[in-house]
Design a protein that fits this description.
Elements lengths: L10 H10 L3 E3 L9 E2 L11 E4 L3 E5 L5 E5 L6 E5 L5 E3 L11 E4 L5 E5 L12 E6 L7 E8 L4 E2 L5 E7 L17 E11 L2 E10 L7 E10 L4 E8 L8 E7 L5 E5 L4 E8 L5 E13 L4 E6 L8 E5 L8 E8 L5 E8 L11 E5 L2
Parallel strand pairs: 2-23
Antiparallel strand pairs: 1-21, 3-26, 4-5, 5-6, 6-7, 8-9, 9-10, 10-11, 12-13, 13-14, 14-15, 16-17, 17-18, 18-19, 20-21, 21-22, 22-23, 24-25, 25-26
InterPro entries: 6-blade_b-propeller_TolB-like, WD40
Protein name: WD40 repeat protein
Pfam families: PD40
């Protein structure tokens, strides 16, 4: 997701203090100490298979045979058969105001994030959740709930977790202000009543955020859905924001810090089968700048403090590109990620989808 992208474009709107929260992280040039491992030679984007020259935010199907992605923010959603590389447009014949994310539900339907009306200044802060049935015959079916940024989806059942800004931003306020505003967090199951999807058994979770977190983005469930893994956007320290990986037990609310290190940016994105490790956007937050990120593997060990190992290098000197949004295939053998163009006003948007076999 890259919480902190686009700092320069928001200075006037957010002020210098808020803008620091939107700074991006840097790429590591040397081996880091304190629990971070680095390989001597890492594969990069040139070593990956190009699946699409456009689009981003990839998501693997439950069987790992297909990949869904968005063509662009507020565009259409697509699906690729990974064996044949055939691509189909999932939403070309459906009325909508633009898709921002698409994920698979365990039952084979799609979970879509999109605005209810034509997108405006802060539409991204108040998107809604929809279900797109796998037959593509029923259109986007609303779940009647707003969402801010990512949604965690269980691999086992139609269980989701999300965050919503409360109260809503005022008209004209930029959507990035949502990172500094109060939010509420929920879990619910997507059930079907007379064939119509609805949110059932909705519960508020994490009524009080950990002291270290200003905002969290739910990312994945693990340990048989007993724990929620998320990215924690922390309070500034010496002018630098802190992005770390945490988990919370849904029953009891016990928090675990899986990775936090002074000056290190670590934003969790995908989770491996069994929930024993995750892919992380990683880099050094040495200043309020927009350097590229690497892709790391983080052990999600009991008690926290897992080892963070770099597995894919980010953009190289002279290239105006980043890599981000890495997700792991259901068999744990592949990682899909997106390419994005640095300084693109579409923060977190993709400019191509890639596939790389993990060592």
């Amino acid at each position: 997701m890259q919480f902190l992208r686009g700092e320069g474009r928001l200075m006037a709107a957010l002020g210098k203090t808020r803008a620091a929260l939107l700074a991006c992280a840097g790429v590591v040039a040397a081996v880091l100490s304190g629990g971070v491992h680095a390989e001597t030679v890492l594969p990069g984007i040139d070593d990956a298979t190009v699946l699409s020259e456009f689009g981003g935010r990839p998501a693997f199907s439950p069987d790992g045979k297909r990949l869904a992605f968005v063509g662009k923010t507020y565009g259409d959603a697509f699906e690729m058969d990974l064996a044949t590389r055939r691509v189909r447009n999932l939403t070309a014949n459906l009325p909508h105001h633009g898709i921002t994310r698409i994920q698979y539900l365990p039952n084979g339907d799609f979970l879509v994030t999109a605005p209810r009306t034509s997108p405006g200044t802060n539409a991204r802060a108040h998107l809604e959740m929809w279900v797109l049935d796998r037959s593509l015959t029923k259109g986007l079916q609303p779940l009647g709930a707003q969402v801010f940024e990512g949604i965690a989806v269980s691999r086992k059942r139609n269980l989701v977790a999300w965050a919503v800004i409360a109260p809503e931003l005022k008209p004209g306020e930029p959507w990035q202000m949502g990172f500094a505003r109060p939010t509420r967090r929920y879990t619910a199951e997507i059930a079907y009543r007379a064939g119509v999807p609805v949110l059932a058994n909705q519960h508020e979770i994490m009524a009080r955020l950990p002291d270290e977190c200003v905002f969290i983005e739910p990312q994945d469930f693990r340990d048989d859905d007993r724990e929620l893994v998320y990215s924690c956007m922390g309070r500034m320290n010496g002018g630098r924001p802190s992005i770390s990986v945490m988990g919370t037990r849904l029953a009891g609310g016990v928090d675990t810090v899986y990775f936090r290190r002074e000056g290190e940016y670590a934003e969790v994105e995908g989770i491996a089968p069994g929930g024993i490790w995750s892919t992380v956007e990683c880099g050094v937050q040495d200043k309020a700048a927009l350097p590229p990120l690497d892709i790391c593997r983080l052990e999600l060990k009991a008690g926290g403090g897992g080892v963070l190992t770099r597995i894919v290098r980010g953009a190289e000197p002279g290239r105006a590109q980043d890599i981000s949004n890495p997700v792991v295939s259901p068999d744990g053998k592949w990682v899909a990620f997106q390419r994005s163009i640095r300084d693109d006003p579409d923060i977190g948007g993709g400019n191509g989808v890639f596939l790389l076999r993990l060592p």
